[in-house]
Amino acid sequence: MGNQITTFYSGKHRSEYSDLIRYLPDNGSGRLILPNTKGETDRHHDRGFYICHASNNVSLNGSNCFIRGEFFLKAQGKPYFVTSNNNTQYGIKGQQGNLTYDFVSFPDIENISVIVNDMIRSNENYSIKTMKVIDRVYHKTILVNGSRLMLTVSVKAERDFGSYTIKLYNQFGSAAFTIDLRQFRAPQNLKAVALDTQIIVKWTGNHDIGLQETFFVEYRKHFESIWSRVSAEYKSTAILNGLQPGAVYFLRVFSKTTAGESSKSDVIIVKTALTYKQRSSRNQDIGTLSRRNDETIIIPAHYDEIDSMYYNPINATISHQASRNNVQDCTRQRLKVNLGDWEANNISSRNVHCAVHQFKPCQENTFLSSSSDE
To answer: Which SMART domains match (predicted)?
Structure first.
C-alpha cells in the first residue's frame, strides 16, 4: 500500500467540565505548542484537557479513519480569584449577610487573612466549599473546578460598611481580592394613585448599584397582619387589582438582585375610592339627612295647674314682697297723717306713745291706737 501519510489536526483546549476554551494549531509534527499569554497563563496556568485528532487518510467504508488523543494538564501555581467575582456587594444595616469570594487553588490553601477597612481581623467567621465556579479564560466564559469562600458579616452600624479583603496563601504564593460592601437601600420616592378596585404604584430603583433589580410590591389592609406580594419584574411601576372599594391599604416596596435583597421601603397609606353606586347611595343619604335638619320639630307645651311658660317662683316671691312693701308704705303715710293731726290737736303734750298692734294688708280697715299722759 506504500507509505501512509499521517495528518494531524488542530487541537482543542477544554475545561475539566468539557467547556471549549480554545483551538491550538498543530505544526504537522503531532505536538501542541502552548503559547505563554500574559494575564492568562500566569493566572490559571493553562489547566485543563488537551485533545487532538490524527488520520492516515485511509478510507474505511467510504469515510476517513481518525484517532483521538487526550491529555489532562494538572497545572499548579499560586491561587487566583475568578473573573465572575463582584467587587461591589451590598448589605442591609441591622442584618447579617455573606460576602462571596470564588477562587481556584492547586494545591490547596494553607492560610487566609481577612482585612476590614485596612485592619487585619483574626476572629472573622468564614466557610469554604468546593464547587463549580464561573471564570473567563481566553475570552470564553466557562465552568472551572474551584471553591467558594463565604465571609459572614454582621452590619450593626455605618462603620461596618467598607472594604473587605481576603488574602489566600498556598505553597506557590498568594492572591488577594477586595469587596466594597455598600448599603443596599430600599427603592425610593414611593407614590400611589388609588381608584375604586385598583392602586397604581410607582417608585425609583437603585440605579447606582449596577445590578439588575427585580421589584416586589407588598400590600395589606390596615387591620390585617399578613402582607400580599406582587412581582413587578424589572419595571418601576405596578398595578394592584381586585381591591376593596373605600378601604385603607398599607403599601411598601423592596427589590432583589444577585447581590441579595434590599430593605423594605417606608410604608405609605392609601385609601381606595368608592364605586359609582356607593357614591350615589352616600349622596342620597346626605341629602335625606340635610332635609331632616331643615325641618322644625314643634313639641306641644304641657301645662299643669300653673302655666310653666310664665310661672317663675322667683318672680312670685318678688311680687309678693313688692305688694307687702306697698302696703307698709301706705300704712306709714296714714300713720304720718294721723300723727300730724294728733299733734295739731295736742300741742302741749310732751310724751307720745304710738304702737301698731297689728297690721293686715288684706283688710280694708286699719286701726291705730294711741294714749298719752298729760
So the answer is: FN3
